[in-house]
Every structure is written in C-alpha cells, then in structure tokens.
C-alpha cells in the first residue's frame, strides 16, 4: 500500500546540504597534482580503513583496499566470475584429481618462490596458520564459514596442503577466495592477534608494501619489486581519504584524484560525470545491499513484529527513485534481485504506515503524552548511524526519520567518520540502528551464516545479534547441498524468514558510479568482489 508522499527529491537533497555535508564544488579547485606524476596513482574513497589484518576487518570495500594491495588469497575471482590461481599453483578440481569425488578432500598445491615482503618464504605453514587463526575462538575473525567444517588440514610438504572436510561445503572456493593468507613467522608468536601491532603495520605477499599512514588523510604504498605475479607498473599507490562525497567528486574533476572508487560519484552527478573529458565513468554493480540494521537486543527491537512494523513504515521505493535517481534496484533480500538464489516470490509491503502503526499498537507500543510511543517505561527513541559525508545516505535517513515520526517513533541521526562507526561501535554492537551496505560474506555464494547464524554472534559478523534456530538449521543445510534447485529452495526459505523477522531491513542493491582519469589503464569493474583494487598489479599509466 502506498502512502502519501510528503518529501520530494529537492527537499531530500536540500536537507542533506543543510547539514553541511554538501560543499560548493566551485570552491574546490586546486592544482591538478594527480596527473603530474606518471609513477603514482591517487585512489580516493570517502571512508578510511580501520583494520589492516585481512582476517579481522569489519568494513568490506574500504578495509579490503589494504587487503588487495598487501595480501594474496589462494585464488581470486576475475571480472568474468572465474576463479584464477593466485598463491595456489593451480585451481583444485575434481577433474585434475585435487578434489575427491565426494568433495570432502582438497589437495592444494602452492606456488613456489613466493616471499613475504620481509623476504621470508611463503610456505604451507602459512596456510595452516591462517586456517588455525580463523577457527580460533579467541581471534575475532570476520568470517569462519566453511573453515569451521574442516576436520583436518595437513601439511604434505612445504608447498602442498591437504584438507579433509567433515562434510561437503559447496562454497569452499568462495571461502578461500575471501580470506587472504597471513604470515606464520610474524603472527604465531603473538599473544593476541586481535591487538597485534601487525594489524597496523602489515606484511604480506601482495603487490604493494604499506609505507606510511597519516590518520584522517592518506596511506602511502610502494610497489613490491619481488611480487610473484610481476612487479606493479605503477610504483606508488596513495589511498586518499576524502570524507565528503561531493568534495571527492570535485577533486576527481580537477585532477587531484586519479580514481574515485567505492561510494563513488553522487547519484545526482552521474549524467554530468559521463560527459567529462579525459575521465572514464565506470558503471559498477556491487554485491552490496543497503540495509537498516537493527540491534535486536535493544529493548525497542527485541520483538520481530516491531522490527517489521518499522520496516514497512519506510518509503523504500521512494528513497530509490528520489534519492538514487532510480539507479539502484529494489531488493527484499540480502541478495541482489539478479542473484540466482534470489527469492522472487517475496512481496514488498512497504510503505504502509497505517499497518505499521497498527502492528506497534498490537505489540504494546502506545502513543505517549509527548507523541512518542512507549512500552514498560521505554520510549521508542533510538539513533541511526552511518558514515558521515555521503549525502544520499543522509537523505535516506531523513526520509526514514520522517516516516517513523508519522507513526510516533523518534529517530535521531548520529553519523560519524567511517573509522569510528565501523570500529567497535559496530563490531561490539553498540549501535541502535545502522544504515549499512554490506555484501554476502562468502563471495557471491548465498550462504549468509556469518551475518545471521547464531554461531556468528561475537565470533563473526552477526552484529545485529539475531538468533533463530530455524534459520541456523537452513543455513547449515544450504552449504551442503550440491543440487542448485535444492539450494535455491533452502535460501528462499531463509530470505522469507528474514523478511518476516527483519533483523536488517533491505533497501536496495548497490550500483556505483566510479571514475578514473583516462590515463589510468587496466582498471576493470568486477561485480563479484567488493574491492576496487582487485587487479591493481595490472594497472598502468598511458
């Protein structure tokens, strides 16, 4: 059921500007420093990496820049969706005999001659240590899916490991693609990996070496001359943090930035961006879905009926049409609607403020004398946080704030820099609600255990603290099913339950508009990864 529109596009964008987030582009012109050095690339994002250890980070897309530059996985996924060997000498398959017929035993042959950037050799011991760290309950690993099903991991020799699974795990390729290898010789003696100095000064096998970090400003990387896939053609990589999206776009126009990735060009500037000379506009579908995350242990959000009422009060389609200019597809799931496992039978119940109000009444949340709902002495008041400096997210928050106000709910916008909001505020579930865009954690596989299985609370990425035994059961089943139709049915049921109980309220599938200077060659859009620098070793300057 539609509701009366009370906020138009102009009002939303104007509202974001009123917060001070939109700055006059005309005042930003500076010398075009980016194009002055052919041996350097300046890559900009609105957010700043927080955690540099690839096993621990929380914020995919930003922290994965460090991961892609400094570390390697056993294999990558390219822009066609194919797995390609990286630290593995070849991709294990049933056909070449490296995977047993029952799918439980994997032999992985490692590339020889690879060294860590401190000169130490990369060996099977590093793979074993990475696995042991991921499943160590004392390590705050961001994802354990698949690794927790390993029965044994045996070192056959310095360049071969053999893994035996307790049961077949279908997305095992994706699991290893998503987790990069960390060094045994540097981390095995650490008393606590979570607080190790390595997490700020990482050593990897990757294409670049982290040389310096200026908090709040930028990070400088130098090319690894001994990189096993060949030394990068561009000698220096600077990751610049520009918290305001429009300021970053202005710097892209003036030449202070070579590549504006991640959040990218504001939706309302896409048409202009496509016409800019000496710039390349990249339409970039991403695995992310943008949600409202509810902290399900806060008294306002314990009841699934309340969460659903808050969700269906929101004008989701209007937010897409008016704020994103229709550039992002509506989704009712944690998957893009184009994903093979998307449940097309799901029905969009937004926006229905009358039903939302009725559901809140039925749940015992009644309008108080101040116009705000309350129950058992608790007010229906909470905060909503996201990364500061992104006008489209700010405008969505303002729209939802108005939607909720109409049904007696008081939401306060509490935005912070990315380095703050995605730190312990998120990982320790200190938030009330978040506006986030996150991807499935096991690559493009529909397994969502790391974000909503109860076993991922405190030791994974289940930051909403959501628990449902039936969802746990279905997720455990789905990763063992090799028949695609059976898997599809299982994940359809998962999506149905999640849409009913709403630990996270889906808004849209993310599509970004990124931009490079034309002189930067080799950049490839890859819809299968969250990392804009996934093939950085192939970049060059004309």
Residues in helices, as a percent range? 25-40%
What is the 3D shape? globular
List segments where confidence is low: pLDDT < 50 over at least 5 consecutive residues.
1-33
The span between the termini is 54 Å
**Biggest sheet: strands, sense, closure?**
10 strands, mixed
Number of helices: 16
Structural class: alpha+beta
The radius of gyration computed from the alpha-carbon positions, rounded to a whole number of angstroms, is: 23 Å
Strand order of the largest sheet: 7-8-9-1-10-18-11-17-15-16
Tell me the strand percentage band: 15-25%
The total of beta strands comes to 20
**Mean pLDDT over all positions:** 91
Description of the molecule:
- The structure is a single chain.
- The protein has 16 helices and 20 strands.
- The strands form five sheets. A ten-stranded mixed beta sheet has the order 7-8-9-1-10-18-11-17-15-16, sandwiched between helices. Strands 4-6-5 form a three-stranded antiparallel beta sheet, with helices on one face.
- The longest helix has 18 residues.
- The N terminus is likely disordered.
């Amino acid at each position: 059921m539609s509701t009366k529109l009370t906020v138009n596009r102009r009002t939303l964008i104007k509202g974001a500007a009123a917060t001070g987030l939109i700055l006059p582009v005309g005042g930003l012109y500076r010398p075009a420093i980016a194009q002055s050095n052919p041996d350097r690339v300046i890559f900009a994002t609105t957010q700043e990496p927080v955690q540099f250890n690839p096993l621990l980070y929380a914020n995919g897309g930003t922290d994965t820049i460090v991961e892609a530059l400094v570390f390697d996985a056993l294999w990558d996924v390219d822009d066609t969706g194919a797995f390609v060997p990286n630290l593995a000498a070849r991709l294990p398959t049933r056909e070449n005999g490296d995977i047993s017929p029952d799918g439980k035993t994997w032999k992985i042959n490692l590339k020889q001659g690879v060294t860590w950037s401190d000169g130490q050799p990369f060996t099977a011991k590093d793979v074993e240590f990475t696995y042991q760290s991921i499943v160590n309950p004392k390590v705050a690993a961001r994802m354990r899916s698949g690794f927790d099903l390993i029965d044994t991991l045996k070192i056959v020799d310095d360049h071969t490991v053999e893994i035996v699974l307790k049961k077949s795990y279908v997305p095992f390729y994706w699991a290893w693609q998503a987790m990069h290898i960390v060094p045994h010789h540097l981390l095995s003696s650490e008393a606590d990996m979570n607080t190790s100095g390595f997490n700020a000064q990482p050593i990897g096998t990757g294409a670049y070496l982290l040389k310096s970090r200026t908090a709040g400003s930028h990070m400088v990387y130098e090319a690894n001359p001994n990189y096993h896939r060949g030394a990068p053609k561009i000698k220096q990589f600077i990751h610049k943090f520009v918290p305001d999206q429009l300021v970053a776009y202005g710097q892209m126009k003036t030449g202070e930035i070579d590549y504006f990735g991640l959040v990218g060009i504001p939706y309302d500037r896409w048409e202009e961006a496509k016409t800019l000379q000496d710039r390349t506009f990249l339409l970039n579908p991403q695995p992310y879905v943008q949600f409202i995350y509810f902290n399900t242990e806060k008294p306002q959000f314990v009841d699934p009926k309340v969460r659903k009422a808050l969700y269906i009060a929101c004008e989701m389609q209007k937010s897409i049409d008016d704020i994103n200019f229709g550039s992002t597809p509506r989704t009712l799931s944690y998957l893009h609607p184009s994903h093979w496992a998307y449940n097309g039978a799901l029905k969009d119940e937004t926006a229905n403020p009358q039903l939302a109000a009725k559901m809140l009444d039925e749940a015992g949340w009644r309008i108080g004398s101040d116009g705000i709902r309350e129950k058992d002495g608790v007010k229906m008041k909470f905060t909503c946080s996201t990364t500061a400096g992104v006008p489209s997210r700010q405008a969505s928050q303002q729209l939802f704030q108005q939607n909720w106000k109409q049904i007696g709910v008081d939401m306060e916008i509490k935005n912070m820099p990315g380095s703050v909001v995605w730190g312990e505020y998120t990982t320790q579930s200190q938030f009330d609600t978040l506006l986030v865009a996150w991807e499935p954690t096991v690559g493009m596989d529909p397994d969502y255990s790391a974000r909503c299985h109860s076993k991922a609370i405190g030791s994974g990425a289940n930051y909403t603290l959501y628990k449902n035994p039936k969802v746990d059961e279905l997720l455990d089943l789905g990763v063992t099913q090799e028949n695609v139709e059976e898997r599809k049915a299982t994940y359809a049921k998962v999506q149905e339950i999640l849409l009913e109980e709403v630990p996270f309220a889906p808004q849209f599938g993310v599509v970004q508009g990124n931009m490079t200077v034309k002189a930067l060659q080799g950049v490839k859009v890859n819809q299968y990864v969250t990392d804009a620098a996934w093939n950085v070793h192939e970049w060059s300057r004309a």
